[in-house]
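Entry 12.
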Amino acid sequence: MVLDIYKRAFEYMGKNFADSILFVISAAVLGFLSIALPILGAIIYSYFYPNVVAWYYKKVTGENINPDYKTAFLSLLIPNLLASIGMIFILYGITSVSVGSLASAGYMNLFGSTSYQYVSYNPTLIIVEWVIILISILLSILLLYTFYGSILGKVNKLSIYFKKSMILLAYILLYSIIALLVLAIIYIIYALAISINYGAMIFTILSIIFLVPTVTLIALLKAQEL
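Predicted 3D structure (tokens):
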């Protein structure tokens, strides 16, 4: 049952709140590195995140699992590397346009004369970078069961399990929508009672603290049933 999975995940998180916070912090640090360090960050995240997820699941459930870290690593590495490459293209485009915007307004060179330079958007580059990002997102979805299944020791090779991945995606999306609606109500209450900024802060903190560990547990608990 859908609600049973949600209830179990929330109970595990609540009974192991300190461990859940450690998990959130670890996931946040790895996520930051994956964004801050192009390519290298994606490799670091893909290598260490499966270990963090396996530790958290074993800690809160007490189950003895035998993760296939190699498969888990590869199932994260491929989409993460693509996402990282896409981000490099995007950042390069933003930097080029920024420099071009500054140059197009005119600037003083070393000899005191005003020079002009124009840099335009590259439509092909924009299309390529967004195609890469979309492929990365698609692969992340298609490899959902591969990742969580390898953490549980149920998958030992890199492969796409379309139906099972779609089931996990549905469980995750439905829970996320419900949780965000509840948090949105809390945000509105705090925003009206105190301030919009305070409400936004509470919404962000609760989203990170509760969504990250429970979504992870929901995916793992459902993957265990499939």
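Annotation: Residues 69-104 form the longest helix (36 residues). The two ends are 12 Å apart (CA to CA).
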